[in-house]
Design a protein that fits this description.
Number of domains: 1
Number of helices: 5
Distance between the termini: 14 Å
Structural class: mainly alpha
Helix content: 55-70%
Shape: flat
Order of helices and strands: HHHHH
Mean pLDDT: 90
Largest sheet: none
Low-confidence stretches: none
Radius of gyration: 15 Å
Number of strands: 0
C-alpha cells in the first residue's frame, strides 16, 4: 500500500470529528517498517494540511511562506537528527518522529 497525504488527511478529518472509532489492528500494522512508512506519510501530508487551513484568498501567499516553512522544518529536522542520531536504531518512537520530520520537510515538493 502506498502511503501518501490523502490517507493522513482522512485521518485528520476523522480525528477532528465527533466520531468514536473502534478498529482491529492486524499485527502487520505494528511492525517497524509499516510504522516508519506511516510516519513518513503523515509528514508528507503536512503541506496539504497547511493549505487546507487557509482561506482561498490566503492560498497564493503560500508561495511566499513556503521558503520560511522550509527553513523552519529544515532546522527542526537537523536539530532532531543531531540530537538523537545515535538512538534511531534502538528507539522506534524517535525513528518514526524522524521520518515524520523528513516528510514534513519534503512535503511542499510532493504531489499527493
Amino acid at each position: 500500500m502506498k502511503w501518501n497525504g490523502a490517507i493522513a488527511l482522512a485521518f485528520f478529518y476523522i480525528q477532528n470529528s465527533d466520531w468514536e472509532i473502534w478498529h482491529h489492528l492486524p499485527s502487520k500494522r505494528l511492525e517497524k517498517e509499516y510504522l516508519l512508512k506511516l510516519s513518513r506519510g503523515f509528514g508528507l501530508a503536512n503541506h496539504k494540511l497547511r493549505l487546507t487551513r487557509l482561506y482561498p484568498w490566503q492560498r497564493p501567499l503560500m508561495i511566499l511562506l513556503t521558503p520560511l516553512y522550509l527553513l523552519s522544518d529544515g532546522y527542526k529536522l537537523a536539530y532532531y537528527y543531531l540530537r538523537y542520531r545515535h538512538e534511531f536504531d534502538s528507539d522506534l518512537t524517535k525513528a518514526c518522529e524522524l521520518q515524520a520530520r523528513i516528510g514534513r520537510f519534503i512535503s511542499p515538493f510532493v504531489r499527493a
